[in-house]
Design a protein that fits this description.
single chain; alpha/beta; Rossmann fold; 6 helices; 7 strands; globular
Length: 190
């Protein structure tokens, strides 16, 4: 999907999915910017470190925003997370039109990682932007394995990424769902 000015702001966590988004849009000649939101997540420090290194690697500007929030987490799910992140991105979107991208994929338990969720969010975006700011999720119909393979094929710096929900210093922690995915993906690669 392209907009008139080919600009995209990626909700950037420093993980595999958002890193893949950067490459995806750069390959399509978009002006790519990142937005990292510190909302009190356990992994903030490690995510921020990954974001800074990956931003430098891809030569993109990444805005960092801190918001104090009291998180409700049940079974690894942060209630309202992607709705919140998209709302913050919309409020801080620096252009009159363009894309806001989220690296969600289909192989997850999270209710806000679906085409249905994106369609409902887009309706809200349309109210605010008259259809000029589009939510684009290029991997929404792909699995985590598909995204990982995209990263391997495109020689993306997976060693710079960070993806642990528990904020463990050494990943994969082996306990959270994200790290369990990582273990499986890296076993397949080797």
């Amino acid at each position: 999907m392209k907009t008139e000015n080919n600009k995209v702001v990626i909700l950037f966590s420093g993980g595999i999915d958002s890193t893949a988004c950067i490459s995806y849009y750069q390959q399509r000649n978009f002006k790519v910017e990142g937005l990292f939101i510190n909302y009190g997540q356990k992994a903030y420090k490690y995510e921020k470190n990954a974001v800074e290194k990956i931003s430098e690697y891809f030569k993109i500007n990444t805005q960092i925003i801190k918001i104090n929030a009291k998180l409700i987490i049940e079974n690894g799910i942060i209630q309202g997370r992607n709705n919140f992140l998209l709302s913050v991105a919309l409020m801080n979107f620096p252009y009159s039109n363009g894309l806001i991208s989220l690296g969600i994929h289909s192989s997850t338990i999270f209710p806000d990682c679906s085409q249905n969720f994106i369609q409902k969010e887009q309706e809200i975006f349309d109210l605010y932007s008259s259809g000029n700011i589009i939510i684009d999720c290029p991997f929404v119909n792909m699995t985590k394995r598909d995204i990982f393979e995209f990263c391997v094929i495109n020689k993306l710096p997976l060693n710079l990424t960070y993806s642990c929900e528990n904020g463990a210093a050494k990943q994969p922690c082996g306990k959270c769902s994200t790290c369990k995915d990582l273990i499986e993906l890296y076993e397949i690669k080797n």
